[in-house]
Fold:
Amino acid sequence: MSMIGNFLAVSESEIASLLADAENGPLLIERAYDSKTNRPMNIGKAWAGIHYLLTGTEYGGDPPLNFILSGNPVGDVDLGYGPGRLQHPEDVAIISNAIAFIDRNRLHERFDSRKMSAESIYPSIWHEGEKAFDYCANYFEELKKYYADAAAQSKGMLLWVS
Structure:
């Protein structure tokens, strides 16, 4: 079964709704998929590879570059692989600023397909070399834009793996 990384920019009122009752998470996500203006960002299986390229670790790393696995859990409603995690608008702004200066070349400097294979970084595609890097780098570029847009609108972020 695949583990897909998902991100949803959320307004202050949506954050308040989530914090008041985590059961609102699935409904918020469902409405977002139906929305024409605030759609979730799905980065496929690339989330773990991107996290590794940014932090050099499978699950750790320092803020704000560990943002893919950060955020405060929102209740115990299972959104696929556990509860969603919430990043507040000020966190999204910090993350957006930090990743804005990481371009494809800088990300590539951190890419070592042999090491990623040896460390069993998800997904198991690193034997594909540059094709695997392109998969992660392309999603990273989209994610940078999604965070920049959210930061510009003073939105937070709901993250989940499905």
Q: What stands out?
A: The chain has a mean pLDDT of 94. The chain has seven helices and five strands. The CA atoms of residues 17 and 24 lie 7 Å apart. Helices lie at 12-20, 24-34, 46-55, 89-100, 104-109, 113-118, 130-152.
